[in-house]
Here is the input.
Amino acid sequence: MKNFSVAICLFIVSVVGAQQKICKTSILNKNNLLEKNEINKYQKYDFSKLWTKTDNNAVFGVIGDNYERILIKLISVKKDLKNQNEYGVYGKSQVKGNICDFTGTITIIKIQEIKNPSFGNDDEYKDQGIKSQGLLTANYKFIENKTQKSTGNFEGTLETIWYLDKNNSMRYNDIDINSDSYFNNAFVGTWKSDSTQKSKLCNWGDYRVPNVNCDFDIGAAEVSVSEKYKKYGWLTMPKLNWWK
Here is the structure.
């Protein structure tokens, strides 16, 4: 019985050891966040520009277990005047040359302030009058145009880091963009096919892909896809302004 128990334990350890570790799971240190949800305090501000700021060649995404490359472009994001925590979205996606339009919503569910704000290398932002910094958490759902080919729905959770400047304008927080670990606008969720009703992992973000196997992105200062995954759409550069 003792030998059987040891064998079971060794089997479990071997299975766990074989599982891939997940990297890029958080865009900041969650221990540096205040617990209180300040959504009511910040709902008057417009976050829409934060999700369209980054050049599309710096937005990286994957779909499916093989981490097939997916291109996502949020073309228009507008705040709902009636529901201040909801934003209407129009954008496009591309996989293997197939381009689809999509519409949907981003709905903010939590806003937390940072305890100890960062002001960049050598505190270069310290005298810029920044009033607060924080993390925004939202749910998103984007529905592709069903009259097009190979369509489906995107659904999941979004995390964005931001700061409020001296003029009370909400700004995209790129203060630590020169850090190797920096990424922002982390969309983590699934894509569900209209035809098969099957769901696939689908994550994308600015400068890095969030919540992926650690062997996917082996780059230090920037994204560098490992040989294991390159054949899944990562060998060629996307066409410039592919969504137009």
Notes: The chain has one domain: 22-230. Residues 22-230 form one domain.
